[in-house]
């Protein structure tokens, strides 16, 4: 998950390291300047002619960054308006906190995994650990959960570094059983330059976590026990096992189980091991993060693809989906966090919100919708 730019201390009056004339020359190097002035906020502002400007504006931002400045571009009537402002002063990274939270999450996830693995009914334990020992499943389960969540966040970090944006390292959030974690979050230190960067920021985490989750699910399938159909019937009657299928479990996991990854002899049944719980959590994390709401990854993706109005419209649909699927607690928490923020009903706005999203990313938007559908699951009552 990503969050909006971290608040930073800014001076009451803007202070610029170079004069107005030099700023105008910098803008004129790439744009046709029609007018230039200092607005009521004290910000150098330039009116420029409308033209293809995605790459030009990104290059201007790069030049301004050398002077610790940034800019925002907006369309006003038949002209473009560029406002230049000082980049916020940022505090030093708190890597010690990142490390401590990660180590705490390792402990809480391992403890939650221990309870799950060694809390199995003895009638199940006799065969549940036949392919992979209890200790092996404990390690695989904890590693799977941490890998899905951790690599999800480092997918965001990779996108940030690729686009030369600035963000914090992931802050892992320890939690109680049965998950052992509430996930992780990074915070941007400044808005993305354009819709392409905003899309990459949102998409990079879910696609990385999605791929890792598939790997974990495959490991779970290959190491899960196989028992006779008669034994399966007896265990279901004793309510120690249950048949699962979509929408009570992610459709992706059903597809993988039926994909022929593992040959199951006639009259035998594959029983998912506890390692599949990590894949289930990964699917849940991917689904919730892809919802097109506020500062969730899906919110960034939809904001970049459909714009501000599309973002608000799909957010309403997303809350309806949460209600139907039984995610009332998550929906309420999300609403509280939204209205405690500075921009409760708006997504993250790029500095250039005019240039359209690239065609290749529009294709990836369809992939994001497919991922959302494959990971959707209704919470059990």
Question: Would you spell out the secondary-structure blueprint of this structure?
Answer:
Elements: E1 2-3, H1 20-28, E2 33-38, E3 44-49, H2 54-65, E4 69-76, E5 79-86, H3 95-118, H4 122-128, H5 134-162, E6 171-174, E7 181-187, H6 195-223, E8 226-228, H7 229-237, H8 251-257, E9 268-270, H9 276-289, H10 297-325, H11 328-340, H12 359-375
Parallel strand pairs: 1-7
Antiparallel strand pairs: 2-3, 3-5, 4-5, 6-7, 8-9
Brief summary of the model shown:
The chain has helices at 20-28, 54-65, 95-118, 122-128, 134-162, 195-223, 229-237, 251-257, 276-289, 297-325, 328-340, 359-375; strands at 2-3, 33-38, 44-49, 69-76, 79-86, 171-174, 181-187, 226-228, 268-270. The chain is α+β, with helices and mostly antiparallel strands and 381 residues long.
What does this 3D model show about the protein?
The protein is an alpha+beta fold and 381 residues long. It folds into two domains: 2-86, Alpha-Beta Plaits (2-Layer Sandwich); 95-375, no CATH class. Helix content is 52%, strand content 12%. The protein contains twelve helices and nine strands. A four-stranded antiparallel beta sheet has the order 2-3-5-4, with helices on one face. Strands 1-7-6 form a three-stranded mixed beta sheet. A hairpin with a 2-residue loop joins strand 4 and strand 5 (79-86). Helix 3 (95-118) packs antiparallel against helix 5 (134-162). The longest helix is centred in the middle third of the chain and has 29 residues, at 134-162. The two termini are 27 Å apart. Mean pLDDT is 88; it is low at 6-11.
Coarse structural class:
alpha+beta
Task: Kindly report the spatial arrangement of strands forming the biggest sheet.
Answer: 2-3-5-4
Low-pLDDT stretches = 6-11
Number of strands: 9
Report how far apart the termini are.
Answer: 27 Å
* Major beta-sheet overview: 4 strands, antiparallel
Rg calc: 25 Å
Q: What letter string, H or E per element, gives the SSE order? A: EHEEHEEHHHEEHEHHEHHHH
Question: Mean pLDDT, as a whole number?
Answer: 88
Number of discrete domains: 2
- Strand proportion: 5-15%
Number of helices: 12
Instruction: Bin the helical content.
Output: 40-55%
The global form is elongated
């Amino acid at each position: 998950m990503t969050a909006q730019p971290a608040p930073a201390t800014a001076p009451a009056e803007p202070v610029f390291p170079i004069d107005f004339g030099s700023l105008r020359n910098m803008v004129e190097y790439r744009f046709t300047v029609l007018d230039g002035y200092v607005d009521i906020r004290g910000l150098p502002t330039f009116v420029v002619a409308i033209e293809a400007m995605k790459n030009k504006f990104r290059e201007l931002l790069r030049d301004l960054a050398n002077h610790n400045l940034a800019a925002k571009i907006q369309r006003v009537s038949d002209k473009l308006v560029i406002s230049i402002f000082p980049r916020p002063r940022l505090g030093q990274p708190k890597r010690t906190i990142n490390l401590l939270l990660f180590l705490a999450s390792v402990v809480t996830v391992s403890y939650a995994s221990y309870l799950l693995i060694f809390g199995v009914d003895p009638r199940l334990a006799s065969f549940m650990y036949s392919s992979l020992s209890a200790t092996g499943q404990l390690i695989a389960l904890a590693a799977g959960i941490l890998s899905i969540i951790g690599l999800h966040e480092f997918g965001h970090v990779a996108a940030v570094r690729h686009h030369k944006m600035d963000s914090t390292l992931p802050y892992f959030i320890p939690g109680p059983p049965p998950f052992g974690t509430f996930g992780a979050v990074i915070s941007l230190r400044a808005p993305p330059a354009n819709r392409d960067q905003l899309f990459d920021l949102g998409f990079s985490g879910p696609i990385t976590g999605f791929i890792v989750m598939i790997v974990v699910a495959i490991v779970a399938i290959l190491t899960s026990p196989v028992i006779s159909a008669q034994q399966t019937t007896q265990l279901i009657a004793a309510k120690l096992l249950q048949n699962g299928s979509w929408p009570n479990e992610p459709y992706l996991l059903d597809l993988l189980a039926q994909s022929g990854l593992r040959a199951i002899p006639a009259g035998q049944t594959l029983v998912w091991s506890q390692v599949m719980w990590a894949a289930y959590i990964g699917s849940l994390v991917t689904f919730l993060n892809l919802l097109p709401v506020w500062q969730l990854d899906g919110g960034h993706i939809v904001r970049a693809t459909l714009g501000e109005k599309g973002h608000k419209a799909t957010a309403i649909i997303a809350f309806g989906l949460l209600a139907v699927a039984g995610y009332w607690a998550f929906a309420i928490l999300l609403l509280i966090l939204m209205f405690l923020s500075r921009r409760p009903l708006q997504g993250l706005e790029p500095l250039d919100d005019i240039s359209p999203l690239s065609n290749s990313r529009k294709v990836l938007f369809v992939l994001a919708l497919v991922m959302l559908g494959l990971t959707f699951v209704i919470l059990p009552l």
